[in-house]
């Protein structure tokens, strides 16, 4: 990738990363771009950093070289957020230019010292502080804590209206053919890209939905022309991403979209028979459906679908007096990511005396999930006609409840 000029004196330097698990945990089938930005006034600043996932900044140095910028000439390193996907290169950079000043929040300083050793070449900034780089580039800093870590700030270039938002307004998905703006994608590509944004939001930011909502409201007040995030593509139409992020944040408490996610697992195919039946029933309904088998589909993928779904169906057998283990693990994760207030339905097979419900109740209560369940359907071994009929009724009832919830609560909200 080559450096791209995005506004007067502002350049994007990006690296696409693939074949990694983001945060060591989340699969990213479409990769992710890590973005860094150069602001050239009389002085030069670099906002966030890109490097290989291993913290090796060779790709960043190569990009700087293409711009004829030596690391020695960079005066300020603005670290909006200290997570090593943005800061991992600081250690290497310091060796080349020990004089540069790191600009970040008070909490970033603490992390900077802890990650890369103590250094007093630090300018602490917070809400309302400014930094004048010359040639009109006066930077304003805004506190947007917990999007994603407590240290997070945003940097706003008042001259060009560029908001460097770091993790906020970011997305998975990589930059292809130097198309760095969302509006350069075709309609189909935009649909796929939105899925990547939801994947990113639900996997990385979901637990901080309230803070993401607050940050979105705050950033909407600024005269923003460009939203330049640390991951994914740039938004030339800021209202679009503010609206989208506000919606994703609201998905936590529900109602989310008119969608149902069916999560299922089966050892010997008994529960699977009932799942196939339920899928047929769902196909007859006018509703978007996502179906995921656990543990085959990753947590991140299940979470992406569950995030925008107002209804959830769980189908799993009993296993050693509890629910099928991968279902328990996924549910814990949904709870921790604050997938709250869903309409839900459960069915599944057992062989001895059951037990899945007890564990399900325990998880839902402990994580305050407040899911509202329709009467479950449990069957011994293979489902009988009467079990399938009960499942059909349950699925249809769930669809109805999902639609009602959206109608009534979205109107109130
Ligand atoms: C390792 C293992 C543990 C099981 N534990 C239980 C249990 O604790 N309680 C129960 O009612 N059935 C238990 N069963 C029986 C299954 O729930 C039953 O065979 C069911 O039909 C499996 O459905 P499936 O084919 O959809 O996986 C267990 C089966 C296996 C293989
Ligand atoms: Fe982060
Ligand atoms: Fe990040």
What can you tell me about this protein's structure?
InterPro entries: Flavodoxin/NO_synth, Flavoprotein-like_sf, Metallo-B-lactamas, ODP_dom, RibonucZ/Hydroxyglut_hydro, Rubredoxin-O_OxRdtase. Residues 260-399 form the Flavodoxin-like domain. Pfam families: ODP (PF19583). It comes from Anaerocolumna aminovalerica. It is a single chain. By secondary structure, this protein is an alpha/beta fold. The protein has 2 domains: 4-250, Ribonuclease Z/Hydroxyacylglutathione hydrolase-like (Metallo-beta-lactamase, Chain A, 4-Layer Sandwich), CATH 3.60.15; 260-398, Rossmann fold, CATH 3.40.50. 36% of the residues lie in helices and 25% in strands. It has 12 helices and 22 strands. The chain is elongated, with a radius of gyration of 24 Å. The protein starts with a strand and ends with a helix. Bound molecules: flavin mononucleotide (FMN) and fe (ii) ion (FE2) (2 copies). The site of flavin mononucleotide has 20 residues, from helix 8, strand 18 and strand 20. One fe (ii) ion (FE2) binds next to helix 2.
Give me the secondary-structure topology.
Layout: E1 4-7, E2 10-17, E3 21-22, E4 26-27, E5 32-40, E6 44-47, H1 58-66, E7 74-78, H2 84-87, H3 90-96, E8 101-104, H4 106-116, E9 122-124, E10 130-132, E11 138-143, E12 153-157, E13 162-166, H5 187-205, H6 209-220, E14 226-229, H7 238-250, E15 257-264, H8 270-283, E16 288-293, H9 299-307, E17 309-315, E18 318-319, E19 322-323, H10 325-336, E20 343-350, H11 356-366, E21 372-373, E22 377-380, H12 385-412
Helix pairs in contact: 5-9, 6-7, 8-12, 9-10, 10-11
This protein binds flavin mononucleotide and fe (ii) ion (FE2) (2 copies).
GO molecular function: electron transfer activity; FMN binding; metal ion binding; oxidoreductase activity, acting on NAD(P)H
Protein name: Flavorubredoxin
Domain Flavodoxin-like: 260-399
């Amino acid at each position: 990738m080559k450096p791209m000029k995005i506004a007067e004196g502002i350049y994007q330097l990006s690296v696409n990363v693939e074949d990694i698990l983001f945060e060591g945990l989340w699969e990213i089938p479409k990769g992710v771009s890590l973005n860094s930005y150069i602001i050239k006034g009389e002085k030069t600043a670099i906002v966030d950093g890109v490097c290989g996932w291993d913290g090796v900044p060779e790709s960043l140095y190569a990009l700087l070289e293409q711009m004829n910028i030596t690391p020695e000439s960079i005066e300020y390193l603005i670290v909006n957020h200290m997570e090593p996907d943005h800061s991992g290169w600081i250690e290497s950079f310091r060796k080349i230019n020990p004089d540069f000043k790191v600009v970040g929040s008070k909490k970033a300083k603490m992390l900077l010292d802890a990650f890369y050793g103590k250094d007093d070449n630090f300018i602490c900034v917070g809400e309302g502080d400014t930094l004048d780089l010359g040639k009109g580039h006066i930077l304003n800093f805004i506190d947007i804590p917990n999007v994603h870590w407590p240290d997070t700030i945003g940097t706003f270039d008042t001259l060009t209206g560029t908001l460097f938002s770091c993790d906020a307004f970011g997305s998975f998905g990589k930059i292809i053919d130097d198309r760095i703006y969302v509006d350069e994608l075709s309609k189909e590509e935009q649909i796929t890209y939105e899925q990547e944004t939801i994947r990113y939001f639900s996997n990385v930011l979901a637990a901080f939905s309230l803070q993401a909502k607050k940050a979105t409201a705050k950033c909407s007040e600024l005269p923003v022309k460009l939203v330049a995030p640390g991951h994914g593509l740039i938004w030339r139409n800021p209202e679009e991403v503010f609206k989208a992020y506000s919606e994703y944040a609201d998905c936590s408490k529900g109602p989310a979209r008119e969608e149902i996610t069916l999560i299922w697992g089966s050892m010997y195919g008994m529960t699977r028979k009932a799942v196939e039946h339920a899928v047929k029933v769902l196909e007859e309904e006018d509703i978007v459906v996502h179906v995921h088998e656990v543990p085959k589909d990753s947590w991140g993928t299940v979470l992406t679908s569950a995030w925008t779904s107002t209804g959830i169906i769980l189908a799993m057998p009993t296993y050693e007096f509890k629910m099928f283990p991968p279902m328990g693990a996924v549910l814990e994760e949904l709870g921790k990511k604050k997938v709250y207030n869903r309409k839900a339905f459960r069915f599944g097979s057992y062989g001895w005396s059951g037990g899945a419900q007890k564990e399900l109740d325990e998880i839902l209560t402990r994580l305050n999930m407040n899911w509202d369940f329709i009467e479950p359907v449990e069957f011994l071994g293979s489902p009988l006609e009467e079990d399938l009929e009960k499942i059909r009724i349950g699925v249809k009832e769930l669809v109805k409840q999902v639609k009602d919830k959206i109608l009534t609560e979205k109107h109130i909200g």
